[in-house]
Amino acid sequence: SLATGPRQNNSIFYEIRTYDIKPSKMKEFVEMSNKYFHLRMAHSELVGFWSAELGAMNKVVHVWKYDNFAHRTAVRQALAKDKDWQGKFLSPVLPLIEKQHNEVAYLVPWCQLGKPPKEGGVYEWVTFQMKPGGPALWGEVFRAAISAHINTGYTKLIGVFHTEYGLLNTVHVIWWNESPDHRAAGRHKAHEDARVVAAVRDSVRFLESQQNMLLIPLQCSPLK
User: Fold this and answer.
1) pTM of the prediction?
2) 119 vs 115: CA distance, rounded Å
3) CATH of domain 107-217
4) Which residues of the chain does CATH 3.30.70.100 include?
5) I need a surface site. Which of 1, 64, 65, 100 has the fewest CB within 10 A?
């Protein structure tokens, strides 16, 4: 029961990096990122880059895709030698950051990384802390709860990730909605849907805690 359970059949993983920015420096950090982050993106694939609007403050989240751990090592070594990246972005923004946190996560095996149907809208980042045991324990009922929300049609699933490094038994789910009000209306309808209620009730047996953030993509983010 302590096995982590299945994951995708390749070595691809995602690094989730979360930075807390000094409150007085958030605007400057975003401006610097939009201006210079292409230098970082030249080295590896950026999935998305967002700033928190609700549920957290002065926080940014970005997700990177790697083929394997050797790929990440090679990228980090190249970044250390990239004078443009080091001089134009990294050195100036380090004093703006209060705290950094990173995790390594895999897509759950039943999820492909999605894209929104159009640009604009907002992203909801939901973090679930599950009981120990990994997807082998809670995977199927969690999938059923996610599918029940998808079937309501009010929201678009972008990705479901479970951690490999960082706090284990953590699941991050990214949703896209047209607007915060559209999301709120959809949630109210979902709470009245017996299928959603039943699926969620089954899933929460394995849930320790949950946190939601409403995110706005930066201009430099591939997911907008």
Assistant:
1) 0.93
2) 9
3) 3.30.70.100
4) 13-106, 107-217
5) 1
